């Protein structure tokens, strides 16, 4: 399998490549990322055949959209797919500090949650201007759910359902302003709820169906049965499957560390790189449309591409199941 292999979502006809480039790091996630670094990541991805790019207004407080749009609009619009997100309206605010919500040197625009009909449209129109792209292929509702909003979840969920947020997205799709919409979240439960009240096409799910955890397997099966595509993000579970000690954006607990070490040992026996197994595993599920990988620079995305294309023997997946390291019923790469 190559990163540039085309995959088409049947319901929406959206065409993506087997790997996409996630552009949170273009917004200086965790540390400052200079434009030249972002440009090298984009160019290395493009040269390797990657043609799907994901961004959001929240990334760098609009910086990621501005950078990605500058790079993408050098190429014919029909040659790539792009997704961005709604749910936060970026409001001018000179008090934005040097480090906010994990972004270094963010631009002076404060994110304000707004999932209402008008809020969705304001966010979308602002993204069109920043990107220089009138019709992004996919639009994800960003960070809706209890994990993000806690006690305020009901309030924001009401904005999306009763306040016209989903109606706005449906209208954009009907008008041809987008081809598909869904949620972009870190929890599968809210996608399952949304499926019952809105006609979702494609959703982005970060970190919940990975080599390390498959508790969402039945959810993935249900999406496949309904023709809903899932863009797989967070394949490294915040970094622990790529060599760091981070899991779900925090320090990994002891049981997770032990499980990763067992996976690493199994990889060593078969001569497989752990990162390669992590990137390839989620895409084997029939609901999975593509795997999105973030990168700060060209060197990082080149490494990810190498892992994605690394040959892995079928016996490796069999032995993982025999050792109870992945779910017995989980689809595996062929």
UniProtKB/TrEMBL annotation:
EC number, as in UniProt: 1.1.1.122
NADP-dependent oxidoreductase domain boundaries: 19-322
Record InterPro entries: AKR, NAD(P)_OxRdtase_dom_sf, NADP_OxRdtase_dom
GO molecular-function terms, A-Z: D-threo-aldose 1-dehydrogenase activity
Keyword S-adenosyl-L-methionine: no
Pfam families referenced in this protein's UniProt entry, alphabetically: Aldo_ket_red (PF00248)
Keywords tagged on the record: Oxidoreductase
Enzyme type, top EC level: oxidoreductase
Protein name in the entry: D-threo-aldose 1-dehydrogenase
Organism, as annotated: Ancylobacter amanitiformis
